[in-house]
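Bench notes, bay 3.
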Amino acid sequence: MTPPRTATPPAAVQCGIAAFGLAFGEDRDVAATAADYVDNPERVVNWGFRTYHRAPDDVHATGLAHAAAQRALDRLGLAAEDLDLVVVANSDLPEYAYRDGAAALARELGIERTQTLLLTEGCGAGVHGLYYVASTMAMQPEVETALFVAVNRVSEYHRNRMNVFSAVLSDGAAAVVLRRGHGANQWLATEQFTEPEHCDLLRVDFGGTVNPVPPEGWSSREAPGGHESVRRQFGDDPVVLQRFLTNRYARLLEVVDGACRRAGLQRRDIDHLIYLNDSAASIDAVAEPLGVPLSRTNAALAPGHGHMGAADQLVSLAQQLERGEIASGDVVALCGISTDRWSATLVRA
């Protein structure tokens, strides 16, 4: 006999997403603009993305985060001063060095003396960031309402949005307001771990303390892309590369299983999977072993957005809920990878 699902999350705190807010850069057609970024546009078009979002030159991560946050607050009729915690996950370069992006968002919202936290772990931060909200609520009973924003705004000076890996990078933000005891879209559990061996795989080689400025004449349009970095890393050894790719998906399953154990659930309890905005084949490689059909993933939404870094999963969750594709009580597994970090969070709609 199949044991019944756990009625409530066996966690130290119960909190749920009470509202979403989304903000995107301007829509751009992939096929019409690929030649502006790469010399082989057919390769980019073949990835399957139709549209990506490009923010205007004067709109940066804080602006996108603020727009998304304000929309989430407005849906609840909340003022920013009602927030007890503000967490920001920024998966691309910040506007300025030596500045706290979470504090910058708090200033835009017009609040002060509110706890803030900035996450910079890359694409997976939009998944495991929910854990830091829940853990703060568990440790601080006075924290009732929190804002979590995941934002990605590509710096085209540093990175070619169509030549990092097999996805078109995109500008967008997703904000959620979480409230203690909220009965819908409840956080159940989060699992994450790091394997640091390949942490340099997609690094940008200048802009930090090692190489503060690029070589003379350097341009992201002409610089080697992520595929060249992968070849350098694995020395054109197809066996070693295949092992890396296989482990990539195996670790995703491992981290989802870990989140299930924490929530007292099993793979068969997962109704939906939301992964990074990747190709349908890549998403299915994660979903199929979990027993989740492709129709219950973000595969249909991904081509219209591109890869928005840490914002991917929350954007898809918001849109699938709005469309009625996720029913009340369904368990949704959000999962993702940064270069060296695997993350999974379970949410009960």
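Next record in the batch:
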Amino acid sequence: MICIQQLNYAYGKKQVLKNIQLDFNENQFSVILGRNGCGKSTLFKLMAGLENIQQGSILYAGRALTQFKGKDKATLLGFLPQFHKTVFPFKVRDVIITGRAAFSRFHPSKEDWKLVDQAMADLDIEHLADRAYTELSGGERQLVMIARILVQSPKIILLDEPTNHLDVYYQSYLMKKLRQLSRQNFTVIAIMHDPNLAFLFADQLFFMRQHEVIQPDPRSKVTDPKFLKSVYDVEFHEAMIQDKTIVVPDHSWL
């Protein structure tokens, strides 16, 4: 679905992406992991068309994003940035309908509102429909913003740190929903910090370190403590929970 080749990017003289090469498979839940400042958010901005490509290419089913306009772009790609804030107390359903702006302008049709109802049902947030967005918890707001993307019916959903600032319940709930969406004809790609959540729910895992993509030795697992130390600069220990492997930071040096 997405092919990134020889992608380089710099802010002035500061190189923030170096020779990025990635392939994201269609209808899977993929996660990019890495420390703060390694280039993950800049990569997403380029993928979403918010920054101009300086060198290299990003192709969506063989086409550059600049070849998609208006409705075609809206049905290709939905993007949820790391930070979003609304200061006006709009009702949740009115926030979600703005995701149909590329299709209906300022006159939503009955079909547009049906899509809003369907998105709320898919995320189990129908009970929030008439609540003011500004009164919601962080987890509820995140689900509303994802519903806003769903009404676009995009093939690809990009989420920059979707579990950030969420409690344990909403982290688990949201990850399950994202995995479900990838099984419902969406290609879901997220930036995350927590490797364990990614290990438990994602289909594809990619790692970034110092502005480059790195992968473990083919003979090693992604949970290999030595590899993870190279990503996070922290010692890890592996642990088995039922049939799943998680990792625990080593705090013995504290």
